[in-house]
Here is the input.
Amino acid sequence: MSVVVTSVVTGPNVMPGLAVAYGMSKEAAFEAVEAERDHLVETALELWENPELGLAEYESAALLQDALTEAGFEVETGVAGIETAFVARYGEGDPTIGLLGEFDALPDLSQRVATEREPVEAGAPGHGCGHNLFGVGSLGAAMGVKRAVERGDVSGTVVYFGTPAEETLVGKPFMIRAGAFDDVDAVLSWHPGWYTGASVGSCLAMNSLQFAFEGEASHAGSAPEAGRSALDAVQLMNVGVEFTREHVPDEARIHYAVENAGAAPNVVDPEASVWYYVRAPDRETVEEMTDWIRDVARGAALMTRTDVDVDFRAGTYEVLANHTLADVIDENMQTLGGFEVSEDDEAFARELKETLGDVSDQIGTLPEGYRSTARRRGLLTEPVPPFDEDVIGTYSTDSGNVSQVVPVGRCRAATWPVGTPAHSWQAVAASGSVGVNAAVFVAKALAGSAYDLMADPDLVAAAREEFETATADRDYQDTVPEDSDPYETADH
Here is the structure.
């Protein structure tokens, strides 16, 4: 299908006298984003057509860096020893407002822009989390607020953070350790999704660990007594972990994948390993669960008379919501009133939505006044007021780490059809087509939000006060191994 994008300046809820409501100087920031629409769409689709996995996003990072350099930003590359991590700055002085940009893809999710499962290349990566849109939406926002600073409408510094490898939780923790966020007053972020609105919810903290068992090889038929099976240890560990599930919080999640399971059935396996994700609503509970799982691994090693080595790969914090920043984003989204899509885009979204089956449960999470529209439509383009207070999403992200060291305001935008799960082929198809409409919209909303923060020191102070109150009894701890290398951490 062809991608048709339309102006975001009008929408179903836009108030009359738009220029007056925005203020002419703030309107210039929106206009700056609109002027970049074609470039933003082109960049998002180019990223989509060339998906790259975490820490290997060389072309993707370069594309975003070139756009920022051309726009007048000072770009620092190789941040935290990561080749694809970068920080781009424009302006000077306070406040310093950051924008997060992600751009890594997922393995084995290659998909054409089509309404049936059809990989471009079987086994290749694909943008199933919409990070091609994420990076570009924040790029557009940076360009919009940069224009306001350039005109002298507001003063301060805008910073774009190019954060790689979100899917493996590597980029942001290392950037935090390197001090990339030390001088930032507030950060604005977003994520592709199936509805549009600011967020005040949280998510699960997480640890990523590998358990590698080592035994003794032997002939499984003629001399099994001489062997010690590492694979037996992995299987016993997994069974043991299953019995912990009854005794962890309902919100907790434990997932594993056997990475090495031996080579032949007639050999007692001398080596085997399993990779675990341990998730819970907060870091403290994650650590408690992780200690228990370590004990299970040691027990499996004792039962099989093998040795076990535990490789802690990375971890994340839960997201700490900031209501002050969420309110600023919501106000800008509501003022913009949503975004329009072409009839072709809406029709394509409806066809994709049909492939999802029953999405009633997802729609049921919305405020009641928006559910009937969500049932009828392919794309829910009108902004929904924040409704996820006290909601703990079952996903994890290293943006949670950023929210523990600086105030972070977050939102979503409807890049995908109603009810679409992330990491699905439908999300890939939409991220390479209809999703570009929402990316340009959110660029305007975040540009307007950054503008408001630069124009009103009291807003920045209120966001900081809320953050300091929420973090008063906690100290941020590194969630990547001490003195570790990001590439070794992500090597699995």
